[in-house]
Amino acid sequence: MAGRNLFVDLAPFRASRAFTRLWVGNSVAGIGSQMTIVAVGFHIYDLTHSTLAVSLVALYSLLPMIVAGLLGGMLADAHDRRTVALWSAVVAWLCVGGLAVVAWGGLDLLWPLYLLTTVNAVASTILSAARSAIMPRLLPADLLPAAAALNGIGMGVMVTVGPALAGVLVSSVGFGWTYSVDVVLFTVAFLGILTLPPIVPDGTAEAPGWRSLREGASFLRHAPNVRMTFLLDIIAMTFGFPRVLYPALGAILMGGGAVTAGILTAAFACGALLSSVFSGPLGSVRWQGRAIGRALTVYGICILGFGTVVLTMALGWWGPTGTVGEARVAPIMWGCLFLAGAGAADNVSSVFRTTILQSAVPDAMRGRLQGLFIVVVTGGPRVGDLYVGLLATTALLWLPPLLGGVMIVLLVAILMRTVGSFARYDAQAPTP
Deepest of 45, 90, 246, 290, by most Cβ within 10 A of its Cβ? Predict the structure, then answer.
């Protein structure tokens, strides 16, 4: 029994067929979404041969995604959440179909790619806010940690299978077929949404607008535990997300070029996926605030460890630095180990942060808080990219993760002592 309890708890699948269909639909459609994200980058680079042009996809969609997160949350609190999810899914699906039409038509224009990907990102963000607000209505509160872990597995599959599949399809059959495959995969998402019952929010909510947004902000001001989940995530993503260093590490210190950058990126994702697979014990954790604090402390230590590996390479302790053609295997392996640990710790924190958000927030306010959560998740990594990029201008590639790891450990310790209600947060009596 103990061995089986180590693995992810599948009870949410047994408890709710609606959750199962929604999970399957989201996971399959997510593979296609990740595939299209990569394919669009390839497509734009194929037209322009410019990395800057590729990066503009994220820049153009950032502000609309933030607005969509807030709007999606307000819509999910004012209308039937099944209807909000369905219409946003239809818009996202039509955008993918539009990309397929552009590719099959041989239109060598950038603006349709930017426009369609931006609208797709907006619709997908609204869909995510509605779907997250739906989840607690499908399952009892004690199964929400297991559901969050299952969603972590789904996300892990998406970000590993989708990009790999995109590379194979683009190189073998071209952009038209790649987008068309996503059109087909996306239809599975409708299976989960269409079979849901109407999910009308409890109570009454303001129509989407400033009053609704102020109501959500006012609730957050008086919800220290929920506010802490946002703040801790911002700290972790700002100071502990060194992904923009990977290309330079592959070219300058660790060697191996783009291959090393890809391996380092995959290590974080693999750690997160493995921690979801072995997430069985998480369902029995009662003091979830403390668990988040401990998980993020481990996260900071792992980022500090990664920075230490980079520092020792810069000091020559591993011998001569690598080149693009010659990778330094030992430090890469140690770096991957620390990044995998960081990914696992971040996923554990995410499971409990999601659980607190879904169980402690009243249903009438859940959509707006999910929308704010999406804004944090969207903006945090980009703030982290800016932090790392600015410090990396010193040419000390070890400085951002080394300093960032120390900052995470210190700030988490200070906040856990300062906000006593969060350290005492009890899953058996959830309070916002």
Answer: 246
CB of 397 closer than 8 Å to CB of 245: yes
Is it the case that residue 4 has pLDDT exceeding 50?
no
The string of DSSP letters for 168-221 reads HHHHHT-HHHHHHHHHHHHHHHHHHHHTSPP-PPSS--PPTTHHHHHHHHHHHH
**Which residues, 6 or more positions from 95, have their beta carbon under 8 angstroms from its beta carbon?**
116, 117, 119, 120, 123
For residue 253, give both structure tokens.
């210190």
Q: What angle do CA 379, 385, 388 make, to 5 degrees?
A: 140
Total-model pTM: 0.80
Distance (Å, whole) CA 256 – CA 260: 5
Handedness of CA 248, 232, 273, 172 (dihedral sign): negative
Domains along the chain?
1-201 (1.20.1250.20), 216-432 (1.20.1250.20)
- Evaluated on CA atoms 103, 107, 108, 114, the torsion sign reads negative
**What is the C-alpha to C-alpha distance for residues 171 and 178, in angstroms, rounded to an integer?**
10
Q: What is the three-class DSSP state of 395?
A: coil
- The Cβ of residue 255 has, within 10 Å, a number of other Cβ atoms equal to 23
Which residues pair with residue 326 across a beta bridge? 323
Cα Rg, the chain, nearest whole Å? 22
Over residues 218-224, the mean pLDDT reads: 86
From CA 428, how far away is CA 432, in angstroms rounded?
Answer: 13
Determine what percent of the chain is predicted with pLDDT higher than 90. Answer: 32
* Mean pLDDT, the chain, whole residue set: 86
Rounded to whole angstroms, how far apart are CA atoms 146 and 13?
10
For residue range 110-149, list pLDDT tens digits in order: 899 999 999 998 998 899 888 888 988 899 888 888 888 8
Tokens representing 167 are 């590379």
Asked which of 81-85, 259-263, 311-315 is least confident by mean pLDDT, the reply is: 259-263
| Pairwise CA distance, residues 175 & 191, whole Å | 26
Cα 217 to its chain centre, rounded Å, is: 23
What single letter denotes the amino acid at residue 339? Answer: L
